[in-house]
DNA sequence: TATTGTTATACTCTATAACTATA
DNA sequence: TATAGTTATAGAGTATAACAATA
């Protein structure tokens, strides 16, 4: 056997498959949330707010792994849709505390439905046991990469 | 129980986890192939050529799911690195047939090593059985989405 | 006239840097 | 002086459309 790795070696890796399938999944999901006036990053922000893991925009930027200026833009758009409120933190008036509105929770619910519909399309015909194992594996892997 | 889905429902989906982990994996891989002068799409093109699944630039564009004009740009850069050759198809002189050079195969091998190194980093501490199941599940899912 | 590859152009996404206000 | 948020600007990446060569 040769130690020169070809395309088969690359295709066997997690990063290659996660990268290609991730782009595919993101496109499918984006197409479905587009009619809600949202992009995937909006859904990520709504989910982070619902999970209550962060409040200030700086914390959210770190959580989502994006620049603080992008949070401003995403929050502006969600606010225009009536999905979030910005409240000045009375203890530190530099901080804007973002909170979900009922409309924001409704939109998050629609995003979850969109993701489930995209799942059904993506995994159509896949063995249910294998699909469950895949979901569990992804969840376990993702849990190791939550920003602190 | 409520039928209003929150962030937990979204985080349980394949598309959400594939999307977030895919972006993470792509970044890690990109950082490692950067020193080779390559981006992930270059690696994808090298792998497609090595697999022999396509020859003309139009076929490669369809295979990778990108615009034909992007193949021109990627092939230009790979040609400048001495990784691919462009040969006019004598049967149809409109066609440019791309072929890997020895240097191209060497670069592909380095890409595979970069992906394996990124895998080790990404899956560090993950149970080996779970990791194997994950790799197998991704491979099975990806096989369902190869462009025809 | 249709198709392959190429070039020219424009658009989307996101980061970096400068700025304002609060601390 | 340092930090949270905002605004202004710039860069990367990629698509679309116009073009040239060949069928």
TrEMBL record, chains A, B:
Pfam families: MarR_2 (PF12802). SUPFAM superfamilies: Winged helix' DNA-binding domain. Residues 11-143 form the HTH marR-type domain. PANTHER family: HTH-TYPE TRANSCRIPTIONAL REPRESSOR YETL, TRANSCRIPTIONAL REGULATOR, MARR FAMILY. This is HTH marR-type domain-containing protein.
